[in-house]
Amino acid sequence: MTLLTIEEAAKFLRLTKRTLYLRRDIPRVRYGHKVMFIKEDLEDWVRGHRESPILKTGGRETGDRAVDLARPTVYHRNPLFVVAEPKEVR
Length: 90
Known about the structure:
By secondary structure, the protein is of the alpha+beta class. The chain has helices at 6-13, 17-22, 39-48; strands at 3-4, 29-31, 34-38, 55-57, 60-62. The protein has a three-stranded antiparallel β-sheet.
């Protein structure tokens, strides 16, 4: 088991320290007021968030997940905020 400091984990994941503090889905361990990361847990977390391979079927690319999900392109702190879908031009 290899323990990493916040600086080492940020360098390992190529993220900023701020991102590591804000992202609650990244596995961490707290020792008093210090935040530490276990390198093996970070490696497993990265492997779990890898994109699935794209399969080609009938000239169209599809994966395990739906590609064309209607998601807002803008992040908003209020979960009730909904971005209007663009209108089609005729």
